[in-house]
Structures are given as structure tokens and as C-alpha cells.
Amino acid sequence: MPTTRRRFLSLAGGVTVAGTIPVVTLRPLEATPAMLTTAIRNVVGEAQLRTGRVKLDIPPLVENGNTVPMTVSVASPMTADDYVKSIHVFNEKNPQPNIGNFHLGPASGRAQVSTRIRLADSQKVVAIARLSDDTFWQVAADVVVTLAACTEEMN
Amino acid sequence: MAALINVPAKARRGDVIEIRALTSHIMETGFRHTVDGVLVPRDIITSFTCRYNGAEVFRAELFPAIAANPYLSFFTVAKESGKFEFEWIGDNGYSSTASASITVE
To answer: Which NCBIfam families does the record match to this protein (chain B) (predicted)?
Structure first.
């Protein structure tokens, strides 16, 4: 049977469909905004969460989500009776909402922590500080990520 | 495992000094798959502690969202000459330590 144009096209179409199937099967999990809220509630409890005092330095646009530099600082005198107890950082869309918990004290002198994090998608990053009077302060920043972390295949 | 610690060798009493600590670790998230679809098990550092002459001055709980070769920078007040001890603890019984000394005038 000679290869007709119709037959060739239907064959080529079949190959394309077969080729796309494995790509669809691996859909990464995502932390939902609900998971973010739960993770924050686990730290804050029923206390009121106020906005301010915390500063989150993170690039608004990152090319590689595998290593994103981040600095959290809190406006605090860091004296024996007015200091930052801890800093908690969360994300919205990684497979897990937690990034890190950092415990400080009056001996820290300055309430500032830097690290490098992973971001699986363009998303919101939230930093929360717990002060010595057990008030909670938060700040959020939006980050656009070009190359996502966490979910790529291993070779 | 190799660790890079940056602590000023000398400081004046009462100075706020920056401490930087980096250690080599894969920080495997536990969310990645091999090409065959097998889940790569999690292998991360979960805890980092810094002690200054025996007293804890900084502690961190780390999650898979911390980048490979975890880097941490934080501050402390230089009170007296002595030693900073650093400890990393992680999955699969991982543990490593490092130390640095400081002269406070």
C-alpha cells in the first residue's frame, strides 16, 4: 500500500500523542495557601499577627530558584527586656510551607538572619518575627522565579 | 564534612559581630524523582546551633526549602574572649561540628 498523505499524518499524530503522555504524569505537589495559613497558625497560635517591623530582603526576580539569597531583619533594640525571640520564614507554593525557624536572644545584638533558599515557583514568601513580649509581626514579598527548584528530575 | 566559618579574630567588648557559617551538604528535598520515577529519599540538615563559650546564641531549624550547602549569617555581641562552637544535625544520623576562636579586648 502506498503511503498516502492522510495515512502519514494520522501516523505522525499518533506518535505525538504517545510521546506527550509521560510528561503529564509527574505533576509536583504544591503547598496551597491553606497549608501556608496552617503552618503560620502552628507558630503564631491565636495571637494577633501585625504587619510591620520586619524587613524581608529578597530579589523580586530570580533566575534560579535553587538558591535564592534572603535576609530578614527586625527593628528591635535587642536589650534584655525587648528583643526578638525568633524569626520564621514560610512560602506559599513549595511542596512544604516551612523554610526555616531561627531562634535569637538578647545576646544576638542585632535581629538579622541571612540564608539561601529554594523556591519551586513564583510565589509569596512570608517572614514572621516573635518578640519578647510575645507579639507577632509579619511581612510578605512576592518573588518571580524563572527556573524552579525542588521538582526537577535527577539524572 | 567541610565547613567554612567566618568569625572576626578580634573584636572590642560590646561590639555586634557577624558570624557566617557554611557547610557542604546535598540537602536532598525528598520531593525529587529519578528518571525512572523513583522518589529520592530526603536527606537534609534539620538543625544548626551556635554556642559562645558554652551558651547558645543562635539556633536554626532547617527545612527542605533551604538551598544545598546551607549558608547562615547571624549576629552576636562580643562579650569575652573564647570559642564559638557550631553543630549541624541532620537526617540519617548526620552530625558535624566546627569551631572558631575570638579575642575580645
So the answer is: SoxZ_true (TIGR04490)
Q: Tens digits of per-residue pLDDT, A60-74?
A: 999 999 999 999 999
What's the longest Cα–Cα distance across chain B? 60
Q: Report the percent of chain B where pLDDT is more than 70.
A: 99
Q: Is A109's CB within 8 Å of B77's CB?
A: yes
Which triple of cell numbers denotes residue B23?
A: 557547610
SS3 state of residue A24: helix
Its pTM stands at: 0.84
Nearest to A115 among B16, B29, B71 (CB): B71
A62-105 residue pLDDT tens? 999 999 999 999 999 999 999 999 999 999 999 999 999 999 99
Please give the backbone phi and psi of residue A142, each rounded to the nearest 5 degrees, phi first: -95, 135
Is A91 in Cβ contact with B73 (below 8 Å)?
Answer: no
Instruction: Give this complex's ipTM.
Output: 0.94
Domain count across chain B: 1
Q: What CATH code is carried by the domain that includes residue A84?
A: 2.60.40.2470
Domain of A82, in residue numbers: 29-147
Number of separate domains in chain A = 1
**Domain coverage including residue B63:** 3-27+44-104
